[in-house]
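Complex 422.
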Amino acid sequence: MDFEAFPEKVWLSTPTMHGEELIYMKEAFETNWMSTIGVNINEVEKLLAAKLGCRYSVALSAGTASLHLAMKLAGEKLYGMPEIGKGALFGHRVFCSDMTFDATVNPVVYEGGIPVFIDTEYDTWNMDPVALEKAFEIYPEVRLIVVAHLYGTPSKIDEIKAIADKHGALIVEDAAESLGATYKGKQTGTFGDYNCISFNGNKIITGSSGGMFLTDCEEDAKKVRKWSTQSRENAPWYQHEELGYNYRMSNVIAGVVRGQIPYLEEHIAQKKAIYERYKEGFKGLPVTMNPYDKKNSEPNFWLSCMLIDPEFLCKQERGEQKALYIHEHGKSCPTEILETLAKYNAEGRPVWKPMHMQPIYRMNGFVTRDGNGRARTNAYIVGSVTDVGVDLFNRGLCLPSDNKMTPEQQDKVIEIIRGCFE
Ligand SMILES: *Cc1c(COP(=O)(O)O)cnc(C)c1O
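Predicted structure with pyridoxal-5'-phosphate bound:
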């Protein structure tokens, strides 16, 4: 390939600021509400609850903080108040999305729960309802499901909810990546019993950091608000009856989020255009884009991803830390494409390495649609159809999806990737 490298790096996904963010940040400064109280926080809570169609919202320091307090709420509801020092999910198994960021799952462990991973399906790259049903056969005692919407694509919400209802289980919805995405016309982040979103720097809109808890239950919202501010009781002194956390959003961060909210739709439109341009540009290559349910859902297209057809995957070996590949004519692999993109100063990323493959969770259960994934396959076979997560990890990658990428830059990315298959 006779390309020059990009003079300026083409990123996976970076913050896109518009100007209002600075006005609201400055307002916090000038009014001296440089604190975890202030107008920006109130506004952000109000605006997002209205936008999503949810009664209550609590602005927090991170999406992970929101997920943590969601686990705590779920645990207390299901199993009662724990002793101090024991998490509310202590010793209880929890079904979790497998192909996701580990922030979906770690909060289960903060509360003493034991994640059991549910394999992924090919239609949306999210939790497989068939595997979830299987998991209830193996672990009928489970009462909590944590489901993420990968890369902004809604999961099979109706199917998952029906299974949850059938087994009397609650749902924590991790909509950290999917803000603005809809399922049957309803926003993600409103389907769960407990709902979490994130304003981390690379998300569709950002506060540089931050997160939010959403619910229709006033009592739950009050609890989260109280826990997030060190669980102070209503007394003249600092009175504490419960374990507290310092999880509240800063009014400065809230200023950034407040300035970003009006641009959510614009960002989604830009991300969608990027997705469509890749789709068009890859015509004739043995690849597909990350799929979604066109009938029922509208993703936010946060990250565009591609999947290489199995017969067109060149030899690729991935250890715990390093990857190797052998180029073959007409074929390629995620490692080759990512290394080539990096050579030209563009940033891609492997798809999330499934949680059941992570050393930290190697002892946890993993259920595929065929049953217990651990007992059946200790070795992970490339292209194995019984372990969808491994298959997607081997063949998939995230493409540069920054909404400031120009069509010209994107065309060049497409040409670089085409070159990998020569
Ligand atoms: C980003 C992310 C989180 C965590 O959000 P933070 O605000 O970074 O704590 C949780 N789950 C998923 C799926 C994410 O992508």
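The chain is about 35% helix and 15% strand.
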